[in-house]
Amino acid sequence: GRLLGSFRCHHCAYGVFMPDQNLEAGQTWDNLGRSSAQGAIDRPECWGSIAPGTPDAYAGGGVTGYRAAEFRDSRSFLKSTQVIEAVVAFHDPAAARAQLSTLLSGWRQCGGSTVTLTPPNGEALAFSVGAPADAGNGITALDLTPRGVQIRSARVIAAKANVIVDLMVSCSGTTDSGQPRQGGLGIATYVLGKLPG
């Protein structure tokens, strides 16, 4: 928890970094409690593939600190960007690496499949889950493509020292998967550069 407390970012004191000045901070979470906004999923083992920082994905992982925040850029009505970024701390680097390995195993298991998410008060949405790809610098990325809507998302994850950075970037009004992926890689690289160790 001490490491999380020392984080700084220009948007907030929540311990989540964001390089893009145009993104406005929204909701924040400081524990792994289940968000009622998440709804139900047809493949529970894939929670960690389609959503960052979910309790299921970190169960039993020895988490010592947790911060997550949502950021939005909605300057354009037709095209908007949403980022959800979780920063999760562990007792030591070995625990963080072990947890990252577990998460990536789940990503590989769910990659290439379709996962259906049903929000508490909305229509079911099917996602095509891409295969995880090594993006260099210890960062792994995975594309998410919701069926039938002009939204593209990317999941990006990495570990440094005793911390895992787990995030998702979603861009609406586009069918270009490269846009959220590049955004996610930029954010992850920025955050990793700010972490000690």
Task: Please give a handful of descriptors for the protein shown.
197 residues, alpha+beta, Protein Transport Mog1p, Chain A, 5 helices, 10 strands, 24% helix, globular, disordered N terminus
Write up this protein.
By secondary structure, the protein is α+β, with helices and mostly antiparallel strands. The protein has one domain (2-194): PknH-like extracellular domain (Protein Transport Mog1p, Chain A), CATH 3.40.1000.70. Helix content is 24%, strand content 35%. It is built from five helices and ten strands, in the order H-E-E-H-H-E-E-H-E-E-E-E-E-E-H. It has helices at residues 2-5, 47-50, 55-58, 93-110, 178-194, and strands at 24-29, 40-41, 63-73, 81-90, 114-118, 125-129, 133-134, 140-146, 151-160, 163-172. Strands 1, 2, 3, 4, 5, 6, 7, 8, 9 and 10 form a ten-stranded antiparallel β-sheet that branches. A hairpin with a 2-residue loop joins strand 9 and strand 10. The longest helix is centred in the middle third of the chain and has 18 residues, at 93-110. It is globular, with a radius of gyration of 16 Å. The model is unreliable at 1-15 (pLDDT under 50).
